[in-house]
Amino acid sequence: MAVDFRELRVWEEAMVLAEQVYQLVQRFPADERYGLVSQLKRAVVSVPSCIAEGNARGSVRDYLRFLAMAAGSLAEVQTQVLLALRLGFVESRQADACLAQHRSVSMLLQSMRNALQRRNASAAAERHSPFPVPRSRL
Fold it and tell me: What are the transmembrane regions (predicted)?
């Protein structure tokens, strides 16, 4: 895509969420190192990674697919933070901070997906129009 992924607000906010989660899991019990800690880290790293990879793809369709994967990973993060709260691994204020950042990323991600879907639908309609738009002469 035309914009460097590092310039995308959604990517930056996802990176902030990843930093928060990495700080959060430092307080988890040691016996969770290969359980919930590992799963949570993988899920949160996947969010900005999928945004970046989708951005690097050559088509809107591929970009949308990677943004859908980012949204799935984001849902995993939310579930796992809520589980950590239920299990008493984190205090509610710590979980609330992560969940607030999660909401921010989720809204930005959904806005981006909606914009790309509109763009993709518009391009598809233009391709299939019985009245093609004349191309300008070079």
Answer: none
pTM: 0.86
User: Which domains, and CATH codes, for the chain?
Assistant: 5-123 (1.20.1440.60)
Three-class secondary structure assignment of the chain: CCCCHHHCHHHHHHHHHHHHHHHHHCCCCHHHCCCHHHHHHHHHHHHHHHHHHHHHCCCHHHHHHHHHHHHHHHHHHHHHHHHHHHCCCCCHHHHHHHHHHHHHHHHHHHHHHHHHHHHHHHHHHHHCCCCCCCCCCC
Phi-psi label, residue 3: left if phi above 0, alpha if psi -120 to 50, beta otherwise: beta
Question: Which residues are within 8 A (CB) of 112 and not within 5 positions of it... i.e. 6 or more apart?
Answer: 8, 10, 67
Arithmetic mean of pLDDT, 17-34 = 95
